[in-house]
C-alpha cells in the first residue's frame, strides 16, 4: 500500500509551466496533469497542460490521459495528480470535474492522487501562497485538503524574477495544451520543450 500523501514539492519547471498555462488563458479554467514520483512527499517534476476548453471529463480529456500514459510508459516519472487554475477567484476547492479526474488517476495507479488548486491571481505573490493541495483517494468522493504549507517550490524566491519577466515578455504564448494540439497538431503539448 502506498504511503499517505502529506506534502507536495514542485520543481521550478512545474510551477513555471502552470503559471504559463494560467497566463495564456486568464479567462478560462485550465487543467493539467502532475507528473513525478508518488510518496508521502509527492515530487512534481513536471506538468502536462491538458485543457482550457474541454475542462469537463469528456472523451477529449480521456484521449489526453491515454496519450499522456503512453508518453510516460518508458519514463521513470508517472502521473501523480492534477492541477486546476480556475478562471474565477472565488473558487477555492477543486471542481467536481477535477475531483473526478483525480479519482480516475487514483483508481488507475497504486497511490492517492494529488490535486493542486492553484490561485491564479497569486501566482506571482512575494510569498508562495498560490497553491492549495488536496489528496484524492480512489474510494472517496471528496478531495481532502492538506495544510497550505504542505505544498512547496524549493527555488520559489529564485524563480519569481524570471517568471515575472517571462510573463511580461509573453513567453506564455509558446506553451501548448492538448486543446491547442487539437487545433494545430504540429504543436508539442506533451513536453513543451521550450520550457526546460
Automatic annotation (TrEMBL):
InterPro entries: EMC8/9. GO terms for cellular component: EMC complex. It comes from the Eukaryota. CDD domains: MPN_UPF0172. This is MPN domain-containing protein.
Amino acid at each position: 500500500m502506498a504511503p499517505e500523501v502529506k506534502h507536495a514539492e514542485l520543481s521550478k519547471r512545474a510551477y513555471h509551466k502552470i503559471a504559463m498555462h494560467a497566463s495564456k488563458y486568464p479567462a478560462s479554467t485550465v487543467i493539467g496533469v502532475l507528473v513525478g514520483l508518488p510518496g508521502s512527499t509527492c515530487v512534481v517534476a513536471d506538468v502536462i497542460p491538458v485543457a482550457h476548453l474541454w475542462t469537463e471529463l469528456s472523451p477529449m480529456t480521456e484521449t489526453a490521459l491515454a496519450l499522456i500514459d503512453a508518453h510516460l510508459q518508458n519514463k521513470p516519472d508517472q502521473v501523480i495528480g492534477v492541477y486546476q487554475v480556475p478562471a474565477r477567484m472565488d473558487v477555492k476547492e477543486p471542481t467536481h470535474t477535477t475531483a473526478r479526474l483525480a479519482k480516475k488517476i487514483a483508481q488507475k495507479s497504486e497511490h492517492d492522487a494529488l490535486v493542486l488548486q492553484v490561485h491564479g491571481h497569486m501566482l506571482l505573490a512575494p510569498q508562495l501562497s498560490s497553491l492549495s493541495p488536496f489528496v484524492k483517494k480512489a474510494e472517496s468522493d471528496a478531495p481532502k485538503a492538506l495544510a497550505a504549507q504542505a505544498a512547496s517550490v524549493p527555488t520559489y524566491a529564485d524563480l519569481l524574477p524570471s517568471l515575472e519577466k517571462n510573463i511580461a515578455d509573453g513567453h506564455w504564448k509558446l506553451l501548448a495544451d492538448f486543446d491547442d494540439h487539437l487545433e494545430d497538431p504540429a504543436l508539442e503539448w506533451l513536453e513543451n520543450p521550450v520550457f526546460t
